[in-house]
Amino acid sequence: MRELPSLLPAADAVVLCAPPTEETRGMFGAHRPASLKDGATLVNVGRGEPVDTDALTREVGSGRLRAALDVAALEPLPGAHPLWRQPEALIIPHAGTFTDASAKDSATFLPRRSWR
Predict the structure, then answer these.
(1) Catalytic residue among 32, 47, 59, 88
(2) Does the annotation mark 75 as catalytic?
(3) In whole angstroms, what separates CA 102 from the centre of its chain?
(4) Keyword annotations for this protein (predicted)?
C-alpha cells in the first residue's frame, strides 16, 4: 500500500481484488483514479467499497480511463447509473463465473495490445 501512489501513474491496468474492511474502504478514493495515466484500465473484482464510484464515473465519462467491474460501492449498481451508459465501462454480474459471451465481450472491450 505504501508503494501504490508511486506505481499508479505508470500502470496500464490496476486490478483490485480487496475485501471490504476498514483498511480497504475508500483506498481507491477520488485522488487515485485521477493519478492513473490516460488510457489506463481499472478492474475491480473484489468488493465495491474500495473504489470511489463517483470519481471512477467522472474519469471513465471523460474518456480518460476504462473500467471493468462486477461490483460498485452501490450494490447492485442502479439501472439509471451513468456507468451503464459509458462505452469505456464493462460491467458484469457479480457471479464469479464466465459465460459464453465473456471472451467476446472481453476482446471487444480491451485493446488488442492488452492481450499480448
Answers:
(1) 47
(2) yes
(3) 17
(4) NAD, Oxidoreductase
